[in-house]
Amino acid sequence: MNGKLKVSIEASSTLFIEGQSSVEILKGRYEIFGAEYEGDLVFTVDPYKVVPVYALTFLEAVVEGGRVWSTPKRTIPESWAEVAEYVAEREARKVLVMGGVDTGKTGLVTFMVNRLVKRGFRVGVIDADTGQSDIGPPTTVGLGVVERPIVLLSQVQFVDAVFIGLTSPAELFHRSIAAVRALADKALGGLKCDFLLVDTTGWVTGEGGRDLKLYKIMALNPDLIIALEESGELSHILKYVEKFYEVYRVEPAIELRPRSREERRVIRNWMYSRFFENAQVVELRFDDVVASGGFTFTGRKLSGSGKRELSNLLGVDVLYGELLEDRLLLVVDGEYAVPEGSVDAILKEFGVEKIHVLKPEDYRHVLIAFSSRQKLLEGLGIIADIDWSGGIIKIVASHPIREKPILMQWGYIRINPDTFEEEEWVEKWRL
Fold first, then answer.
1. What gap in Å lies between CA 7 and CA 20, rounded to an integer?
2. Peptide bond just before 252 cis, omega within 30 deg
């Protein structure tokens, strides 16, 4: 939709606004995800996110951009209000929300936040969906705190996050599970939240989806699990879980529009660009970096004579090298063909089991993260270039890096530093 569109609906109808949109509600009394308003309200809707505005009286609004439509009914199930009331009355402090893809998990969490905030509670929210994160950037599990009504979960005040390194939790279960536990402790401990809501991924199928949910539940030990189930898709998980935890089943949201793979890609790109909005190019010295999540910058740097010896043996210029406990990591310039017998000689001489050979381009545009003693996630960075001979890393940093040593974690995805488009995944543990 181009330009501004003035719309109106009668009482007991729902106006849907899909972003990217700017919205001004001019008159009326209405509800947005359980929060009641009257009169003027201005807000924006993120790309491909949908805000349902339920009219309690005649309502008028002006919408610019995006798409709008309406339906003559309330689209939020009554069970959502019932479970929000149940959580507050029972004082279920830790609540995990589980459901398949496009069932309305984030909408339910937003609804519950608003109902709890209305009662004066301080609410922590963990967004554990690394691919479609609303709190914090993609590739992270984010934590936010809410003390006033919100229209979208992305409006939650970002507090901290754990970098998983990829938009999918597959093969990185341990990081996702540890992230939820660490952030839960922070929310209920130092941040003194009255309640904690955990929004999980929609991956509930297969062995991977089942195991991720089961072990995340075990790590969190929630007081209540809310299950959005349409046709038994959670039964293979709940059959076991409900023997140990209390489960409250609710209906999925009404009239949801499934998002396409392309729309999800656009949402991630928008979230990256928003997080890197004030990015600056900075240079880091190798000696100031303490790295994790990969092998580079975790071993003992090879001397000049060691690099020259390896260059002669391999027939290629060795730009950089590190000796680790079980392997030799080398960064080389150009193609190489290892002469017969050279590998065995190198392994024996350096006392390692394997040689790990990379090229400068393997590091280009790799997403990285920075931590500190105060925050699990200080910011993200994108590798722009590495001067291997000078020992300098040039990165596009989302936030200032003030503390040394610099605690850096390797990611497993490439992001274009100009457009913030995802380019490709990086082989896990390669760098």
1. 17
2. no
- The half-sphere exposure of 370 on its side-chain side, counting CA atoms within 13 A, is 22
CA 115 to CA 301: how far, in whole Å? 56
3-state SS assignment for residue 130: coil
Q: Assign 3-class secondary structure to 207-227.
A: HHHHHHHHHHHHHHCCCEEEE
CA gap 176, 394 in Å, rounded: 29
Q: What is the pLDDT of residue 253?
A: 86
For residue 280, the tally of other CB atoms under 10 A from its CB is 12
Q: How confident is the model at residue 1 (pLDDT cuts 50, 70, 90)?
A: low
* DSSP H/E element including 392: strand 392-397
Nearest alpha-carbon partner for 371 in 380, 363, 359: 380
Does one domain contain both 173 and 185?
A: yes
Return the CATH number at 384: 2.40.30.330
Instruction: State the average pLDDT over residues 293-301.
Output: 95
Q: Do 276 and 420 meet the contact criterion of CB atoms below 8 Å apart? A: yes
Using DSSP bridges, classify how beta strands 366-371 and 379-387 pair: parallel, antiparallel or unpaired: antiparallel
The pair phi, psi for residue 190, each rounded to 5°, is -60, -35
What range defines the domain where residue 355 resides? 300-361
Average pLDDT over residues 2-13: 92
Q: What Rg do the C-alpha atoms of the chain give, in angstroms?
A: 25
C-alpha span between 199 and 210 (Å, rounded) = 16
How far is residue 421's CA from residue 272's CA, in Å, rounded to a whole number? 8
Distance (Å, whole) CA 47 – CA 5: 18
pLDDT digits (tens, 9 = 90+) for 43-90: 999 999 999 999 999 999 999 999 999 999 999 999 999 999 999 999
Q: Is 344 helix (H, G, I), strand (E, B) or coil?
A: helix
Considering the domain architecture, whether residues 256 and 186 belong to the same structural domain is answered as yes
What count of Cα atoms within 13 Å lies in the side-chain half-sphere of residue 37? 24
